[in-house]
Amino acid sequence: MPEKFAATRHTSSKPDDDLPELTDEMLSRAVLKQGGKRIGRPRSQSPKVAISLRLEAEVLQRWRDSGPGWQTRMAELLSKETP
């Protein structure tokens, strides 16, 4: 192990005076993980499905040019019932 990492192998039960006290605001931004996977977020009742869709370049560019949220607007339009 490189010498510069030797200090990271050491653990101590003494508090570190350089670290700030954890606040409620800090804890509210915490991301909980278990086994490398994020936990705590409920599964969606209607999860989205990834697909591949071939469109003409001009059509896709018009949607992108319409600004942020273009994917959501496209999905809303496609979900409308047609006669």
UniProtKB/TrEMBL annotation:
Stretches for region Disordered: 1-21
Keywords: Plasmid
This protein's name: ANL56.5
Taxonomy of the source species: Bacteria, Bacillati, Cyanobacteriota, Cyanophyceae, Synechococcales
